[in-house]
Amino acid sequence: MIVPIVARVGAATDTGLKRAHNEDSHLAQAPLFLVADGMGGHQAGDRASMMVVREFQALLGRSVLTIDDVGFALAHARAAVEAIAHDGSAGAGTTLSGVAIAEVDGSGYWLAMNIGDSRTYRYAHRALEQISVDHSVVQELIDAGELGASEARHDRRRNIITRAIGAGSTGEADFWMIPAAAGDRILICSDGLSSEVDDQELSEMLAIFEDPQAAAERLVARALELGGRDNVTAVVVDAIHVSARSSGANAGGFDDIDSDTRPRAEAMGGMQ
Predict the structure, then answer these.
(1) Within a domain: residue 142?
(2) CATH number of the domain bearing residue 188
(3) How confident is the model at residue 24 (pLDDT cuts 50, 70, 90)?
(4) Contacts within 8 Å (CB) and 24+ apart, 112-116
(5) Which domain holds residue 232?
(6) I need a surface site. Which of 130, 141, 173, 248 has the fewest CB within 10 A?
(7) How does pLDDT run across 8-23, given as a tens digit for each residue?
C-alpha cells in the first residue's frame, strides 16, 4: 500500500525548571504523532499520560489510520485512565493533542485530534496556524469576547481546562481532517511550550531550524530560557512527500484555518 504521507519527525521533552517530575508523554512515530500532558500529581499524571500513549502504540505499524481507529484507541485510553482513579488517584487525567496520517480518495491527509489544552499547529507557506482549539476556561472567555488574546497569556485561569481524558471529565475530543501538502510542518506541544513561547517566536524558530529534531530541541530549550515553569514537550513533523490524486480531491471538511494543567473541577467545582 502506498504511504500517503512520508514524514520526518523530531521530539524533545524536559521536566522544566520548577517541577520535580515530568508528567508529559509523547509518541513520535508514523502514523501517529501525539503529546499528552498528565495531571493529578506525580504518579497519577505520569501514569495517565503514559497509559494514553500506550493505547495508541497499538496502532503503530500501519500506513494510515481512520477516525474509527483513533476513536477506538481513545475509548480504551479513557478506560485505562479511569482505572487509575479506582486505584486511589481520583485526580488522574491527561490532555491529548496531535495528528495521525490518513488518506481520502488516495490523497494524504492529517487527521488531527485534541482534548484539553495541549496544542497542534501547522506551519506552511511561512505562516503558523493553530489547528486545535483549547478546551479551557480562558478560551471560553476569549470566545465570549470577555478576554483578549494578549490578556489570556497572563490570566490566572489559563491552566484550568474544561475537557480531559479522565479527571472526572466526559468531554469528547475534537477532530479535523486537513489536506496535507509536501512542506507542511506540524508542531504538537504541551502547554509548557505554548505558555512560555508566543506564536511569533514559535513561527520564527520553525522557519530557522530545518531539521525537525533540531527544531524540537530548540523549542524546548527556549521555553526553559523563558522560565520553564511547567513540563515542556514538542514534537515536530515534516511532510516530505504527500500522495494526491490529480483531480485534487478535497473531502476534508477543514477550512484553512507557577503554572500546571489542572482539571476545571478542581478549581471551579465541576468539570463540564
Answers:
(1) yes
(2) 3.60.40.10
(3) very high
(4) 112/175, 112/176, 112/177, 112/178, 113/70, 113/74, 113/173, 113/174, 113/175, 114/173, 114/174, 115/163, 115/164, 115/165, 115/171, 115/172, 115/173, 115/174, 116/37, 116/161, 116/163, 116/164, 116/165, 116/261
(5) 5-247
(6) 248
(7) 999 999 999 999 999 9
